[in-house]
Write a structure and sequence with these properties.
The chain contains 16 helices and 13 strands. The protein is α/β, with parallel strands linked by helices. The two termini are about 35 Å apart.
């Protein structure tokens, strides 16, 4: 078997078999197949795609390239959730405690933020002492004890994906739907869950800008997961404006705590209840989404979810006093309001520009090794559809530098589009895909 023949076969639009896929991936990981040949293979996939069977085999082979988590010692049906990335997306911080409090084990591996999208690991790092790096055994034991744990991904989880992504990034093949689907689903297969709910973002602040792209990706991931024995569902959700009203690590933790107190923004609360209802169905703690939602609402308003979040913080060495005293979270020294220059209704809030402004303040990283400032960020006083009076605060900047504040304001001023007539607010959830 030769890598040349495999590349030629894919270039001609023919599906690869299991042995060919494994030969290519194993050879690439071991350094036996050079980057330039794998780059040619990626470009062939970009133009010719993959069949359903081929994508499933490719995903499974990638998952098996490194550690495979065995969660079988944890009682119950383990259910995971994954977001394709957005601005202000602190869903995991709210959703995981709610679902765990409902009796569904959630062994969650999350990543760090990169670019204009945030990462759960960074947000949790805002809590003093919170350990996101645990041994596999410690991770499993904590899930056994309190039904959940949230950690960073292990270094040897799907090493094939890390090497492939580095090539995709420099060969203009990042936006290939089969390659995106296999990247995400291989990590979820390797993480050991039995059920998965995908939050596929679409809009200005998401990787997928158009609904057609988001639906196509969601369908490929749902089908791949189900073929490989991971029961998978997906929601297509809006990322034209940020989720909630805060962007920035410590600010988002505060908003998550308020949401678990049943005092959070409507869009964040709604999304968590909807995603969670599907997780409860997959975890066999509810017979329908309506029943699952009712259970989660009871947990939310009784503050059992907040109690579970406190237990999660304590379990992983964090300072749980932040729940009663949010000033114990990192706070930026410079706080500046920006006042609306005119009266009107907000038609749009550009999530991408908000994310870039947060990066300007230091809340995000351009490269994976960049330092981030956990205290800085942006608070939105208004969302799309709201009326704004002239002189009313439109947003608040939390910063450590007046120079960075000024740069962020220049970006943010163009992020808000005002109109005279009240517009229809954008939908939060566009579609649900189960098969």
């Amino acid at each position: 078997m030769r890598s040349y023949d495999i590349i030629l076969k894919k270039r001609n639009g023919q599906p690869l078999n299991k042995n060919e896929i494994e030969f290519l991936l194993r050879g690439f990981i071991k350094g036996q197949i050079p980057d330039y040949q794998v780059s040619a293979f990626l470009m062939a996939v970009y133009f010719k795609g993959m069949t359903r069977e081929e994508l499933a085999e490719f995903t499974l082979s990638m998952a098996g390239s490194g550690d495979m988590m065995d969660l079988s010692s944890i009682p119950g049906i383990k259910v995971d959730k994954h977001s394709t990335g957005g601005v202000g997306d602190k869903t995991t911080l709210v959703l995981v405690p709610l679902v765990a409090a409902a009796g569904v084990p959630v062994a969650k591996m999350s990543g760090k933020g990169l670019g204009h999208t945030g990462g759960t690991v960074d947000k949790l790092s805002s809590i003093k002492g919170f350990q996101t790096e645990l041994t596999t055994q410690a991770f499993i034991e904590k899930v056994k004890n309190i039904n959940t744990a949230v950690v960073g991904q292990t270094a040897n989880l799907v090493p094939a994906d890390k090497k492939l992504y580095a090539l995709r990034d420099v060969t203009a093949t990042v936006d290939s739907i089969p390659l995106i689907a296999s990247s995400i689903m291989s990590k979820k297969i390797a993480s050991g869950a039995q059920g998965l709910v995908l939050d596929v973002k679409m809009g200005r602040g998401a990787f997928m800008k158009r609904k057609e792209e988001a639906v196509s990706l969601a369908k490929r991931m749902v089908e791949t997961g189900n073929r490989l024995g991971l029961k998978t569902r997906a929601l297509i959700t809006s990322m034209d404006q940020p989720l909630g009203k805060t962007v920035g690590n410590a600010l988002e933790v505060k908003e998550a705590i308020k949401t678990l107190m049943a005092k959070g923004p409507q869009d964040l609360t709604e999304l968590c209840l909807t995603l969670g209802s599907h997780m409860l169905v997959l975890g066999k703690k509810a017979n329908s989404e309506d029943e699952g939602r009712a259970k989660l609402e009871e947990i939310l308003y009784s503050r059992k979810g907040l109690d579970k979040f406190k237990a999660l913080i304590e379990s992983q060495g964090g300072q749980s006093e932040v729940i009663g005293d949010m000033d114990k979270l990192p706070c930026a020294p410079l706080i500046e309001e920006y006042h609306c220059p005119a009266v009107g209704f907000l038609k749009e809030i550009d999530a991408f520009k908000i994310g870039m402004a947060a990066m300007t303040l230091g809340a995000g990283r351009e490269k994976k090794d960049d330092f981030i400032d956990l205290s800085v960020g942006i608070e939105l006083n208004k969302k799309a559809g709201d009326k704004v009076e002239k002189g009313e605060p439109l947003f608040i900047i939390h910063s450590n530098s007046r120079e960075r504040t000024a740069k962020a304001i220049e970006v943010l001023k163009d992020s808000f589009i005002l109109v005279k007539e009240k517009p229809q607010p954008p939908p939060l959830i566009y579609d649900k895909i189960k098969k």
